[in-house]
Specification:
mainly alpha, Cathepsin B, Chain A, three-stranded antiparallel β-sheet, USP_CS, cysteine-type deubiquitinase activity, Papain-like_cys_pep_sf, cytoplasm, hydrolase
Length: 226
């Protein structure tokens, strides 16, 4: 049976992950993948099914590399060598339609779609609806919004709410996992110099047809003003 290590929590996370030679070692434009893998697995088990479940389309070789060469070392020692990530990148280059996963900078969404959908065969994590149209399924949500002068150092809660509002989006159901891509990535442009992580995310106002309280009388609301 494959060895497994639980995600790092609280004091253990600080002890194992803090200091020099910690995290996932970068090499040859791997930052998009390093950051995504660290976020998905270092301190949470919500996507551990990716490491163990025999999904219908699952590539067990890629699953084994992800589990044994990246996630387990990260949780056990707090460090993953660049060669391990390169091994994964080489396998993804063989599986996907793109030949530049080993050397070029990519959008994190492209990486997540490839490994979750085409390589492991996982069902989409999010169901979204825009303006009453047909619902869409996806694996992560990328924040799109115009530059707003009143947001200098925003938190994640503010960015998600404003992005959903500007795009007239709603969550069709509560997601089992809500992966959000921040608007500060890539070499050329970063909308915000810093973003404060929200340790909890209130999605009450983002849910479609969710019962909510009227802000005036306290009863169940029947109208919503954007």
């Amino acid at each position: 049976d494959p060895e497994s290590f639980p995600p790092l929590r609280n004091e253990a996370a600080v002890r194992v992950l803090q200091g020099r030679m910690k995290g996932i070692q970068g090499h040859c434009n791997s930052c998009y993948m390093d950051a995504a893998l660290f976020s998905l697995f270092s301190c949470t088990s919500v996507l551990d099914s990716m490491l163990f479940m025999p999904f219908p389309l699952c590539d067990r070789n890629v699953q084994g590399i992800l589990r044994d060469e990246i996630v387990n070392p990260l949780r056990r020692t707090g460090f993953v060598r660049a060669s391990s990530v390169m091994h994964l990148r080489e396998q993804l280059t063989d599986k996907g339609p793109c030949s530049s996963f080993t050397n070029a900078e990519k959008d994190p969404e492209e990486f997540l779609n490839l490994i979750m959908q085409q390589v492991l065969g996982i069902e989409p994590l999010l169901k979204l609806q825009s303006g009453g149209q047909k619902e869409q399924e996806c694996y992560c949500y990328q924040i799109f919004m115009d530059k707003q002068e009143d947001l200098v150092v925003p938190d994640v809660q503010q960015l998600v709410e404003r992005s959903f509002l500007s795009s007239d989006l709603k969550l069709v159901e509560i997601p089992s996992c809500f992966i959000i891509q921040m608007p500060r990535f890539g070499k050329e442009y970063k909308m915000f110099s810093k973003i404060i992580p929200s340790l909890e995310l209130d999605i009450t106002d983002l849910l479609l047809d969710s019962p909510r309280e009227c802000c005036l009388c306290g009863d169940v609301a029947t109208l919503e003003c954007s």
